[in-house]
Design brief:
It is an enzyme of class 6 (ligase). The chain is of the alpha/beta class. The protein contains eleven helices and nine strands. Bound molecules: pantoate.
Length: about 260
């Protein structure tokens, strides 16, 4: 597996790639959810490239960025074992030669749900994903459905800017107790980790949106929002210091509001 940490080296590599490329963009601290994206990429592309870049512009709280888990050695060995061809690991200076003076903003969906609680978050996500798509020029790029709003915004951006990459969405991978896999789960305390699966259980419970929200707030979460987006029920809630998100299919619009 090639490790590429400069734009020049990446572009030299890209020129010589023959065949389809599947890109899996990540911020590291990899788990089985990321590996499912890698497997999906492998199944439909000759080459799989994973980027690891903890993108500072999408963190609206310095503390969250500083404490973002870093498990680089483990990440690299998992990716090598999974048959990834190249890992692209740029620095901030390389990814943002403009120091983030140029930004990509979506003006509708990005202001709702997570966007309403994390100002600037989706500007950072869309800007870095656009940079990665332009650099890597993949045939397909793979994203998890856990970040459902992010996925919708990336699909919209690719369409709006005529980007020649197919965005492939992959199902949420869960722990045995239902908790959606997330790099941030590593930061939950032992007690919080026991409570965390209640987020998914509550989304699935037979109750109204108001009752679900009240229940989560009662058992220790601080709910940012619990709301329907299209055919999904989305939730974002903080447990201790850790903000968790999740979503489930929602097929009874109106009934449970
Ligand atoms: O979902 C993530 O890990 C990040 O938001 C992404 C897409 C890699 C952009 O930094």
């Amino acid at each position: 597996m090639l490790r590429i940490d400069s734009i020049d080296a990446w572009q030299a590599y890209r020129k010589n790639v023959d065949g389809d490329i599947g890109l899996v963009p990540t911020m590291g601290a990899l788990h089985a959810g990321h590996l499912s994206l890698v497997n999906a990429a492998k199944s439909s592309n000759e080459h799989v490239v994973v980027s690891i870049f903890v993108n500072p512009t999408q963190f609206n709280q310095a503390n969250d960025f500083e404490k973002y888990p870093n498990t680089l050695d483990e990440d690299l060995s998992q990716l090598a074992q999974s048959g990834v061809d190249a890992v692209f690991m740029p620095t901030f200076e390389l990814m943002y030669p403009d120091n983030y003076i140029y930004q990509l903003t979506e003006k509708d969906l990005s202001t709702q749900f997570c966007g309403a609680h994390r100002p600037g978050h989706f500007d950072g996500v869309l800007t870095v994903v656009m940079k990665l798509l332009n650099l890597v020029q993949p045939n397909q790029a793979f994203f998890g459905e856990k970040d459902f709003q992010q996925l919708a915004l990336i699909k919209g951006m690719v369409k709006a800017f005529f980007i020649n990459t197919q965005i492939v969405s992959c199902p949420i991978v869960r722990e045995a107790d239902g908790l959606a896999m997330s790099s941030r789960n590593l930061r939950l305390s032992a007690i919080e980790r026991k409570v965390a699966p209640q987020l998914y259980a509550t989304l699935n419970s037979d109750s109204t949106l108001k009752e679900k929200t009240e229940h989560l707030n009662t058992i220790g979460f601080d709910v940012d929002y619990l709301a329907v987006m299209g055919d999904r029920l989305l939730v974002a809630a903080t447990l201790g210091e850790i903000r968790l998100i999740d979503n489930v299919p929602y097929d009874m619009p109106g009934d449970k509001a």
